[in-house]
């Protein structure tokens, strides 16, 4: 079934309109546990300090690895002297990038030339391209010995001019990667509708010279950790690692290390957050494997420090939006947008240039704009490589659209709430096909706005703000509407590179009755705190009509469970759809096998059987004879007492199911097709006051409304909304991976980066709506990335507070300092608000 | 992070004497603050070890210097690279010498480029620290050469006495230069003020 062929929407409570998946009715009718705030199964160990993270693994004979990293952002490596380090006590090996390059292939590049010609090795070979890039690795018996030895590795660098700005990078005055011959990674034009005609007939045209989305990261509690062992006895590579997309990682590692996929074993248990950043830690995995091989196969552990994480793991994409023109009709409805976007992917593309298309999943955002033209370019710079940080690529674009909406509303004198209402896609239009062929499954953005306004007391705040302004205070209220597109279609990679061998989306799961009748679930996803064990148990419990407590969900990920697919991982807001669909499918398969087996054992008809809990645990009962057989007996029949089973009773009670999302390969030429299956939405409202003396923006009130379709576990959803809100607020007001002109990261510790904590988190008024997705079996949508709603919202509120002072918010990161400078600049400009105000806060600073 | 310094001072020495001092790493190297040792590689290249410290980040920095330009007795330019835990430093130090009726006017300039996480951890401290150490180096140089007060330099750490004797001997022993530590001697703390006046007076006598 493709989304386009889905039946018309059917009204459901809590949503204006929604389509139904064919299996939805059956699934929901028997739900006892899905939809309830079942306590998280993971909490018992995590809250007692009994979680098992990679650094908790103590393998016999394990060695420790410390990287020597470049202090330069751009430099030629003239020489590396490791002799003194090798002579240190406890040191076994010192590997240099040049040595490593002799035994590995460069990692594959997803994109075509020119970016595809970039040579990306696990460590720098002859040049360093960002501060913190590893140039050598010391392997020693203890971490202390490795650290001491790393300090005496002497590296001679010849510093080169760093390129710290993507626009400047595209000028190619200093080429980072000679093999590519340019700093351009990828470029393309996305044009839909009739943009020129829309501008010709526009009642208003608003121009915005420049908007800038800043660079930040997500700082998981647990930094990257890898234990790698290249065992010479079986020539197998074993990884214990917190990579969050291992199916992707092993596809990169296999050709680089010259081994078959099946030689790579990957295992994770608990992971202390990833937010996408850990997807790109595979270069470190490669180094640990190679170091292990160089040390006779002993396991090699690398534990990243926080400063290493800040400087050299991965940051989110920085993006600049130039020469934006917006056409509007006389009512303020946006009829066309054209713009030029330049994305900064840092020193190496790695997961890029997928971000050059992923933003297009939300091309028009929550709005009905049909005519759009975007010139998109991506460049390398001498900054830390980017990774798919939460809300990856879409949040940059959605922030851009929210700024466009706010600035246009201001220009036309239309209030922010009304401006949005005039432009929102209506719930009655769902499923809504965007100009580029994406299908928004369901949603009611106007309804969400209404609920959020009610939560925060919008009307009351209007009066209070007006009164405060008369007293000279700067207070603003702002709305951020955002989408969290989930379950991506990897076919979009072919828009970037027609040769890319990826499309669709899938996830696997296994549900079995173990030998003694235990229900055991294995999932292909890589949980990092999202509660996968709990929600998987809820789904299985509903299928088998048992309590979730007796459903054992194996923690973490393990290639040796043979559950995963090539898409397996935790990313792109999809577990509720892909992961739980796989779990549901596997549970249904197990149920069918159990029914066949029980029918044989009880001499009953399958249609007469019912599943439930009996006096001897979970059982299958014949309604007619009232005879029952419990799970232990059924498992026993198949596994250890199977002499009497008929030959044609082909059951294993060990059921794997692969869920494949209903995608087609997009039209590459037109850049058209469905890129994502579900679209969760968040709508936030903030009230912010700027301190008159310190200029520190303070959040006075905050409301967050979430709609992720049918909710599997309300407590988990609520927690994820709060987590995403915290991350977004941190990004908007505190966190900034800023560099100086020489390429030094100026926020390499938490003291400088200032991640948000409970102390500066406002009280959040939480609201929830449900617009079930017609495209998932259970009506659920992926969620958790949050769509960066707080960044949009904070900017909107600051805009409201500062518009009368002549300041236009052009940057996604705003601090007391930048606000002060912007206001000071406007004071000097003597109040010329209009065109003069279309300057960036950055340029003001 | 780029730091720029500069200034000028007068010494009652001929340009040739000043030049000969500045071109000799055994003499010039030793006026660096917190000097720990010197290794001369060849005529143009030498390496000094200096003790540095910023807050809790302390250690020995290896500084390699290359004499990039030398035009006797008018101009000298050194380029250097230093490394220590948490960062690297690239710098240039240039001296233009001009004969003056009172001796030699030394116009100096320095440009320091700091790299590494040091800039994040100690970014706000680097400018004043580097400025202080640059001034110490110049003060040491003046003292070693026999000096008269600066005419337009960075703020002096302490006023220096006018020296009347143009024939005072050039200081060649680093142990008697102010701000210079004898190799292997006790380490000063980074913030420890260097007493300039007493040894400087001796050096200028």
Give the topology, please.
The complex is a heterodimer of chains A (845) and B (205).
Chain A (H helix, E strand, L loop, with lengths): L9 E3 L2 E4 L5 H6 L13 H4 L16 E7 L5 E7 L1 H4 L4 E6 H7 L23 E2 L5 E7 L2 H9 L2 E6 L6 H4 L14 E9 L2 H6 L3 E10 L11 E7 L4 E6 L4 H12 L6 E5 L13 H13 L5 E4 L2 H7 L5 E11 L5 E11 L10 H4 L12 E9 L14 H19 L3 H8 L8 E2 L5 E2 L4 H12 L1 H13 L3 E15 L4 H4 L9 E8 L5 E5 L8 H13 L6 E3 L3 E2 L16 H28 L6 E6 L2 E6 L5 E3 H9 L14 E7 L15 E15 L6 E11 L6 H20 L16 H4 L11 E5 L19 H14 L13 H13 L5 H4 L3 H4 L1
Parallel strand pairs in A: 3-14, 12-13, 16-17, 22-23, 30-31
Antiparallel strand pairs in A: 1-2, 3-7, 4-6, 4-8, 5-7, 9-17, 10-15, 11-12, 11-14, 13-24, 15-16, 18-19, 20-29, 21-22, 21-28, 25-26, 26-27, 29-30
Chain B lengths: L1 E10 L3 H9 L1 H4 L6 E6 L4 E10 L2 E15 L3 E10 L2 E14 L2 E13 L2 H4 L1 H23 L51 H8 L1
Antiparallel strand pairs in B: 1-7, 2-3, 3-4, 4-5, 5-6, 6-7
Helix pairs in contact in B: 4-5
């Amino acid at each position: 079934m493709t989304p386009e062929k889905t039946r018309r929407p059917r009204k459901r409570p809590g949503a204006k309109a929604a389509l139904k998946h064919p299996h939805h009715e059956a699934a929901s009718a028997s739900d006892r546990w899905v939809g309830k705030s079942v306590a998280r199964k993971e909490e018992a160990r995590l809250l007692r300090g009994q979680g098992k993270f990679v650094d908790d693994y103590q393998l016999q004979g394990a060695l420790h690895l410390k990287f020597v990293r470049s202090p330069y952002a751009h430099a030629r490596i003239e020489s590396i002297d490791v002799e003194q380090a090798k002579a240190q006590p406890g040191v076994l090996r010192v590997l240099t990038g040049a040595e490593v390059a002799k035994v590995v292939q460069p990692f594959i590049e997803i994109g075509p030339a020119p970016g595809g010609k970039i040579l990306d090795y696990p460590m720098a070979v002859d040049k360093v391209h960002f501060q913190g890039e590893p140039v050598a690795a010391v392997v020693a018996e203890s971490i202390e010995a490795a650290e001491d030895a790393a300090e005496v590795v002497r590296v001679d660098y010849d510093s080169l001019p760093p390129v710290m700005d993507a626009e400047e990078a595209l000028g190619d005055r200093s080429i980072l990667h000679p093999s590519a011959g340019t700093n351009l990674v990828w470029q393309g034009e996305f044009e839909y509708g009739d943009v020129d005609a829309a501008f010709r007939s526009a009642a208003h045209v608003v121009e915005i010279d420049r908007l800038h989305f800043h660079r930040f990261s997500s700082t998981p509690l647990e930094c990257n950790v890898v234990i790698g062992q290249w065992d010479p006895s079986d020539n197998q590579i074993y990884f214990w690692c917190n990579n969050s997309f291992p199916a992707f990682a092993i596809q990169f590692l296999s050709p680089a290390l010259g081994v078959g996929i099946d030689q790579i074993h990957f295992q994770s248990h608990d992971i202390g957050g990833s937010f996408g950043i850990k997807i790109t830690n595979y270069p470190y995995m490669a180094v640990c494997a190679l170091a292990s091989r160089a040390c006779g196969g002993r396991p090699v552990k690398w534990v990243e420090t926080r400063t290493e994480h800040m400087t050299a793991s991965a940051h989110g994409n920085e993006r600049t939006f130039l020469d934006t023109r917006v056409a509007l009709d006389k009512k303020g409805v946006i009829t066309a947008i054209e713009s030029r976007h330049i994305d900064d992917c840092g020193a190496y593309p790695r997961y890029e240039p997928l971000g050059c298309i992923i933003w297009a999943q939300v091309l028009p955002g929550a709005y009905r704009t049909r005519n759009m033209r975007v010139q998109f370019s991506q460049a390398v710079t001498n900054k830390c490589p980017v990774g798919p940080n939460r809300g990856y690529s879409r949040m940059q674009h959605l922030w851009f659209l929210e700024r466009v909406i706010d600035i246009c509303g201001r220009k036309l004198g239309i209030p922010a709430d009304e401006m949005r209402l005039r432009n929102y896609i209506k719930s009655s239009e769902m499923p809504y096909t965007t100009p580029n062929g994406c299908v928004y499954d369901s949603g009611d953005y106007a309804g969400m706005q209404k609920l959020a306004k009610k939560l925060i007391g919008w009307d009351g705040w209007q009066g209070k703000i007006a009164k405060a302004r008369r007293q000279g205070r700067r207070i603003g209220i702002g709305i951020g509407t955002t989408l969290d597109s989930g379950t991506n279609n990897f076919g979009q990679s072919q828009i970037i590179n027609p040769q890319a061998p990826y499309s669709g989306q899938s996830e696997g799961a296994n549900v079995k009755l173990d030998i003694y009748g235990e229900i055991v679930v294995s999932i292909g996803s890589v949980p990092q705190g999202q509660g996968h064990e709990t929600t998987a148990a809820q789904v299985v419990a509903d299928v088998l009509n048992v309590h979730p407590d007796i459903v054992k969900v194996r923690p973490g990920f393990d290639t040796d469970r043979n559950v995963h697919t090539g898409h397996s991982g935790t990313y792109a807001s999809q577990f509720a759809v892909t992961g739980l669909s796989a779990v549901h499918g596997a549970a249904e398969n197990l149920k069918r096998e159990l029914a066949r087996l029980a029918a044989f054992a009880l001499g009953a008809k399958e249609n007469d059987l019912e599943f439930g809990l009996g006096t001897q645990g979970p059982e299958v009962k014949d309604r007619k004879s009232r005879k029952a057989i419990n799970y232990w007996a059924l498992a026993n029949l198949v596994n250890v007492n199977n002499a009497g089973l008929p030959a044609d009773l082909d059951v294993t009670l060990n059921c794997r199911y692969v869920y494949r999302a209903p995608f087609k390969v997009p039209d590459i030429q037109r850049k058209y097709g469905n890129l994502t299956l579900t679209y969760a939405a968040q709508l936030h409202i903030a009230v912010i006051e700027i301190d008159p003396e310190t200029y520190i923006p303070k959040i006075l009130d905050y409301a967050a409304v979430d709609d992720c379709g049918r909710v599997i576990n309300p407590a988990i959803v609520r927690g994820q909304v709060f987590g995403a809100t915290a991350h977004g607020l941190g990004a908007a007001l505190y966190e900034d991976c800023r560099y100086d002109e020489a390429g030094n990261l100026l926020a390499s510790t938490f003291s400088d980066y200032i991640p948000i904590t409970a102390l500066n988190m406002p009280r959040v008024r939480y609201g929830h709506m449900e617009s079930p997705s017609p495209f998932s079996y259970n009506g659920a949508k992926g969620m958790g990335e949050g769509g960066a709603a707080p960044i949009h919202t904070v900017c909107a509120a600051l805009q409201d507070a500062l518009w009368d002072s002549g300041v236009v918010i052009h940057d996604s990161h705003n601090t007391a300092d930048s606000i002060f400078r912007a206001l000071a600049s406007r004071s000097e400009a003597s109040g010329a608000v209009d065109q003069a105000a279309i300057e960036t806060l950055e340029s003001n600073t | 992070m780029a730091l720029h310094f500069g200034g000028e001072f007068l010494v009652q020495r001929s340009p040739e004497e000043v030049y000969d001092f500045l071109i000799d790493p055994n003499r010039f190297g030793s006026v660096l603050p917190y000097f720990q040792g010197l290794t001369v590689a060849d005529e143009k290249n030498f390496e000094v070890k200096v003790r540095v410290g910023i807050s809790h980040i302390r250690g020995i920095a290896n500084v390699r210097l290359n004499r990039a330009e030398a035009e006797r007795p008018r101009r000298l330019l050194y380029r250097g690279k230093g490394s220590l835990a948490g960062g690297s430093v690239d710098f240039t130090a240039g001296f233009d010498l001009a004969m003056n009726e009172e001796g030699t006017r030394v116009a100096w300039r320095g440009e320091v480029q700091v790299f590494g996480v040091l800039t994040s951890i100690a970014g706000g401290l680097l400018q004043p620290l580097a400025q202080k150490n640059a001034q110490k180096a110049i003060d040491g140089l003046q003292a070693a050469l026999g000096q008269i007060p600066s005419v337009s330099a960075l703020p002096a750490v302490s006023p220096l006495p006018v020296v009347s004797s143009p024939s005072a001997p050039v200081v060649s022993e680093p142990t008697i230069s102010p701000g210079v530590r004898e190799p292997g001697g006790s380490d000063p703390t980074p913030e420890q003020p260097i007493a300039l006046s007493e040894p400087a007076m001796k050096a200028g006598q």
